[in-house]
Amino acid sequence: MSLEEQQSDEPAELESGVSRGDELADLLGDLVVGREEHMNAPGLVIRPDEVQDALFKLRDEAGFDHLSCVTAQEYEDRYESIYHLTKFDDRTDEVSVVVPTSKDNPVSQSAEPVFRTADWHEREAYDLVGIQYEDHPDLRRILLPDTWQGHPLGLDYDQDRPQIATLREHANPLEEDHRAAGDSNTMYINIGPHHPATHGVLHVETVVDGEQVVDLDADIGYLHRCEEQMCQQGTYRHQIMPYPDRWDYISAGLLNEWAYARTAEDLADIDVPEYAQIIRTMGAELCRIASHMIALGTFALDVYGDFTAIFMYAMRDREIVQNILEDLTGQRMMFNYFRLGGVVWDLPEPREEFFEKVRDFLDGLPQALEEYHDMITSNEILQARTVGTGVLPPEVAKSYGATGPVARGSGIDYDLRRDDSYGYYDELDWDVVVEDGCDNFSRLLVRMREVEESAKIIQQCVDLLEDWPEDERNIQANVPRTLKPEEDTEIYRAVEGAKGELGIYIRADGTDKPARFKIRSPCFSNLQTLPEMSEGEYIPDMIASLGSLDIVLGEVDR
Amino acid sequence: MSLQAVLPDTISGLLGLEGVLGDVVGGLVGAFLVANIMLIMTAFAGPWAKRKITAAFGDRIAVNRIGPFGLLTIVTDAVRLLSKELIVPEGVDRPAWDLAPMVIPFSALLGFAVIPMGNGIQLADPETGLAFAFAAASIASLGIVMTGYASNNKFSLIGALRAVAANIAYEIPLVITAASVVIFAGSLRMSEIVAVQAEPLLSVAGVTIPTWFAFVNPFAFALFVIANLAEVGRNPFDIPEAPTEIVAGYQTEYSSVYFVLIYLGEFIHIFLGGAIAATLFLGGPAGPVLPGFVWFTIKIWAFFLFTQWARSAVPRLRVDQFLEIGWKGMLVLSFANLVLTAIIVGVIA
C-alpha cells in the first residue's frame, strides 16, 4: 500500500470555506464512519478493521508522517483508541483518528505496519486499558508484569483484588542457560535491571554472538507509578501540577510542568500574562541546560567507562543551574513552580542579585562548553567510538516517533518550540539545532549546541525581565478556583521537553478532574529505536547508543 | 657476576649466616621485605592515592575525614573490606575460583624478584632477568582466565576472553620493544641494563644527560608505555573490566577478601609495569642527589599517576578497535623499531 503514488502537497493547503476535517474526510471517503471535533484537531472515526487502510492513506497521501501518540480509553459503552497524527514538517497540522471498538469484543487492527512506534504504544494500551490489537507483532504487557490480572485503566478494574502471582509464574532468568532457540553460537545476557549503564532500572534482554548484539528487547516498567491514574484523580487547578516533576525527574521539571500547563490552559481557555510567559521560558530553558548537562556527563560515563573528569565537570556546571533554579522555585528537583495561568511567585528578591547570578552563569558557559569540546568532541578516541555508530536513519526515526535531540541528531528539523510555538519562544531570537550525522556523535553534538541556544534564550529573557515595568509584573491570570471544562472536550497538546515531544491528552467529563489523562513520553518512543541502532553492532556501541538516547526511566515507565 | 650484592646475600651477611641456611633465611627475609614494600605502596595507592588523584582530575575533594588528608582511610577501608561477607555464588568452580585471587597478586609480586630497586634492594639478578619479569607478569592472565570461567557468570566470561585477547595482542609488542633495549644493552640481566644506562650521553651546560634508553630511543619508550598501559588494563585499554559494558568483567562475582586480592593484584601489576619501564628506559633507580630507592619509587609512582591520568581523561576503545591497534599498529611498529635498532647498533658497533 505504501507503494501507492504519492500525491502532491495539495491537501496541506487549506481552501477557504472547507475545514481541514472535511478535506481529510473526503480523502478517506468511505473509511470515515463518523466525525468528532477535538480541541487540537479534527477527529475522524474509523472502523476497527480499517485502521491500517486509513492510516496508510493519511501517511502516504496527506503526509501525516508522525504518529505522536496512541491514547486508549474505556467509555461506558465502548472502548476507543485515538491515533494522534501530525507532521514532522508542519506540526500544527493535526488529525485524530478515533477507533471505537465494542465492549464485548475490543479488537482493533494494529497500526504497527504503518508506524513502527505503534508497537509499544499499542502494547501499553492493551496493558493498561485492555484493547486487543489484531496483526500486532508482539502483543504483550509492557509496563505491568506478565502475571498481572486485569487492566488498571479499564472501568471495571477492581483495585482491591490481590495480585497473587507465585514465583513459579515468573520466568526465572537463572533457571536455564538462555540461548536463542536452536542456536548454540549465541549467548543470552540480562543487561540490567541492575547494570552500571542502564540509567535507572531498565532491563535489556540481549542475545549476543561473541561481542556482537544479535537481538535485544528492552523490558521496561520497573518504575511504573500509575502517574496517569494519579493525575486522573487530581483536580485540574492544583492537584495535578506536582506530578509532572516526577516524570522526567532529571532536572527537567519545569519543562514537564509546562506540558500540563499548556494542555490545561488550552482546555480551560486561560490566557497567561506575558510576564509570566517570559519567566516560564527562562525557567524551562534553565532546566533544559541542566538536563543536557546530565545527558552529556552520563554519555561520557558510558563511553569513558568511569566517573571521569568530564562527568564531574558537567555536574559542576549543572550545579550552578540547580542553584539558580532553587532560587527561582525554592526547590532543586520537584519544583512545582508553574500554576495554571502563570507561575506561583515572582522572581526572588533582590532581583538584581538573581539577574547577576544568571548572567554570571551565562558568561561562564562558553568557556565551559569549550572545555567540553576540548575534552570530548575533539578527542579522537571518542570520535572513533561514536562517529558512525548507533546509526538511526531519518525515515526510521520518523517511523518510531523519535523526537527531541534524537530526531534532530538524525537530521530531522523538528522542534515544537518553533514548529508549534508556545510561551515566549516565537518572540525570541534562537535557532533549532540540527545535525545530520544520524549517529551517536551527532546526538551528542546536538545536545551541546542546544545548550548554547538555550543560553541565548535565557539571555534575552533576562534582558526583558530586567526592564519590565514594576507595575506590570503580572505573574498569574485570574483563574477560577474550580475548573470544570465541558463534558467530552478532548485535547492533545505537546511541548518540547528535554528529551523530545512531551504530550498530554485530556478528556474532560464535566467534573473538576480529568476523565482520561494520557502522557506521551518522549523517552518511551525514543527508547523503542534502540534495537534499530544496536542490532549487529558491538556491545559497547549498544551501551553508547543507549546513553545517547538519554532516557529517564521515570518518564519511560511513568 | 652481578655488579652489586643482591639483597638476600646482604641480609645473610648481616646475620652472619652462611651456606644453605644463609640462602634460605636471606631469601625469605628479603622476599618478605620486598613484598611488603610493594604491599605498602599498594595500600597507599588503592584506597587513598587513587581517590585523591582522580578527585583532583575531576574537581572534587575525595577522602578527607579520617586522619590527616584522609590517610587513615587506608586503615578503615582495610577493616571494612576484610569484614565484608564473602559471597560464593552457586555453581562456581570451587578450587579455581578460590585460587584465582591468589594467582593474580602473586604473579605481579613475583615479577619484583628481579627488579633492581636501588640501594641494593634486588632479590635476584639472574642472567635472564628481563625474560623472567615478563614471564611472571603474564601469569596474571592465567588467573584472569580462571576467574572468568570459574565464576559461572557471562559477564565474567566475556571479561576473561577480552583479557586474553588483549594479552596476546599487546604482550608481543611489549616484549619486542623490550628486545630493542636488550640489543642496546647486550644483556637480559637487569643490573647490566641499568649499568649501561648510567653512562653519559651528552653534556649540556654542565648537566650530564645519561644514556637512559628513553632518551636514546624515545620512540621505543612511547611504544613500550602504550603497550604497558594495555598490559595493565587501564584506559583507554580498560577492556577486560569495562564497567559500563560488562559490569566489572572477570571480577564481577568476587566480593570481600577475594575482591581485595584481585584489586591488589591489579595495582601491583601497575607498579610492576612501571618498574619494568623504569628499569628498561629510565635508568632504573638512577637519579641525582636522592638515594636510588627514592628515585625508583618516584618513577613507578609517576607511571601510576600516568595510568590514573589516562583513566580520568581518555575514553575507552571498543574491543575490536583495541585489537586492531594491537595487531595492525603496535605489532608492526614494534618490529620496525626492533629491526631499525638492530641495524643501527650493528652499524655503529
UniProtKB/TrEMBL annotation, chain A:
Keywords: Cell membrane, Membrane, Multifunctional enzyme, NAD, Transport. InterPro entries: NADH_Q_OxRdtase_suD, NADH_quin_OxRdtase_su_C/D-like, NADH_UbQ_OxRdtase_30kDa_su, NADH_UbQ_OxRdtase_CS, NDH1_su_D/H, NiFe-Hase_large. Residues 45-161 form the NADH:ubiquinone oxidoreductase 30kDa subunit domain. Signal peptide: none annotated. Its main location: membrane. It is a peripheral membrane protein. Residues 308-558 form the NADH-quinone oxidoreductase subunit D domain. Residues 1-13 have a biased composition (Acidic residues). The keyword Acetylation does not apply. It comes from the Archaea. The keyword NAD applies. One of its GO terms (cellular component) is plasma membrane. It catalyses: a quinone + NADH + 5 H(+)(in) = a quinol + NAD(+) + 4 H(+)(out). It holds the Pfam family Complex1_30kDa. One of its GO terms (molecular function) is NAD binding. It is found in: Cell membrane. Residues 1-20 are annotated as: Disordered. NDH-1 is composed of 13 different subunits. Subunits NuoB, CD, E, F, and G constitute the peripheral sector of the complex. In the C-terminal section; belongs to the complex I 49 kDa subunit family. This is NADH dehydrogenase-like complex subunit CD. The lineage of its organism: Archaea, Methanobacteriati, Methanobacteriota, Stenosarchaea group, Halobacteria.
Automatic annotation (TrEMBL), chain B:
It comes from the Archaea. It is a multi-pass membrane protein. It is found in: Membrane. The keyword Transmembrane applies. One of its GO terms (biological process) is aerobic respiration. GO terms for cellular component: membrane. Keywords: Membrane, Transmembrane, Transmembrane helix. The chain crosses the membrane at residues 24-49, 99-118, 130-150, 170-188, 200-227, 257-282, 289-310, 330-348. GO terms for molecular function: NADH dehydrogenase activity. This is NADH dehydrogenase-like complex subunit H. It comes from Haloferax denitrificans ATCC 35960. The lineage of its organism: Archaea, Methanobacteriati, Methanobacteriota, Stenosarchaea group, Halobacteria.
